Amino acid sequence: MSYVRYLLRRAAFAVLSAYLVVTLTFFVIASTVRLRLQQRLALASWGGASEEQLESIREGFVAARNLDTPIHERYVGWLVDVTTLDWGYSFAYRRPVIAVLDGRVQATLGYVVPGVVVAVLAGVLLGLFAALAKDGAFDWSVRLTAYALFGVPVFVFVVYLRYLSAEGVVPLSLGRWALATTAVAASLLAGQVRFARASALEQTGRSFVKMLRAKGADRLRLARHVLRNAAIPIVSLSVTELLAVLVLNIYIVEEVVGIPGLAGASLRAIRESDTALVIWTTLVVVFIGITGNFLQDVLYGSLDPRVRSENERR
Fold first, then answer.
1. Average pLDDT estimate for 34-51
2. pTM for this one?
3. What does the CA dihedral 143, 144, 148, 149 come to, rounded to 10 degrees?
4. Nearest residue to 127 via CA among 66, 38, 203, 24
């Protein structure tokens, strides 16, 4: 039951964090909207607009944004709109924002999730067995490969992979999603390998590993015990650091590969000054980050019961 309470508390904290971000976004927008009105009026005046035209612009701007409504009522309406997914209208796509994002978020997650899974699984296993074979041929091969991947920018890797696919060097021509998945996995793999190896090395010198080796335990059994003890720092990298890297990588991958995903909509919104779409493409990324941190808390509580007991004492 304590683990259930732990999960409920972390879920409540995640929801509270999401609405805190939404609240801060509202007040940032509210504090800048008057400045935008003044800029629009100044541009119209510089263009030779009459007083009647300026007043018409002012009235239209105020009416469109409900500026004549008290701020607390606008705030409540904002929270209701967020909760009911009424996120405004995209002028770049001439559709509601939620309709623009519907399908695009799934498209982005469609290559990000498998790419992350491949990077985490391969990186952890390679780093773990490299640590157990420290300074051996396998360890040096893994380390050199990780250093090489660190030195290759994502867009270079994607372009080169597309070239190999087009020239037939790659046996099966890769589709856009397979190409994007491979690019994400390759861009994250090096960090996973190095961090998993470092975390495993911290465990290999401990007494339980020496005892297992003295008993003649094979490498697979050693790896299982080392991984169990190194899981917490590995999970920390897998969830927190990967999210930070992915925020940058999805913009590069979708622009180069041509996937109609979240990053593509965000870039178009920025180019065409589509304020509503810029706000909500950014907030969707924030929401995904909050969800990732919640999953990290869930894994922490599952892997280490001490985390749950510490939260219970608080």
1. 76
2. 0.75
3. -30
4. 203
Cβ neighbours of residue 104 under 8 Å, at least 6 residues apart?
260, 261, 262, 264, 265
d(CA 311, CA 314): 5
How far, in Å, CA of 18 to CA of 209, rounded? Answer: 42
Tokens coding 191: 């960090």
Q: Does domain 106-260 have CATH number 1.10.3720.10?
A: yes
Which region, left, alpha or beta, applies to residue 230 given φ > 0 means left and ψ of -120 to 50 means alpha? alpha
Q: What is the pLDDT of residues 159-205, one digit of tens each?
A: 776 666 665 555 444 577 888 888 888 888 888 888 888 888 877 77
Measured over the CA atoms of residue 107, residue 110, residue 115 and residue 116, the dihedral's sign is positive
Is residue 267 within 8 Å of 106, Cβ to Cβ? no
Domain boundaries, the chain: 2-101, 106-260
Among the listed residues 293, 288, 263, 314, the one whose alpha carbon sits nearest the alpha carbon of residue 100: 263
Helices (H) and strands (E) in the chain, counts: 14, 2
E strand or H helix that includes residue 313: helix 305-313
Alpha carbons 108 and 253: distance in angstroms, whole number: 10
Q: Which helix (H) or strand (E) holds 89?
A: strand 89-90
| Residue spans of alpha helices (H) in 153-241 | 154-167, 176-204, 207-214, 219-236
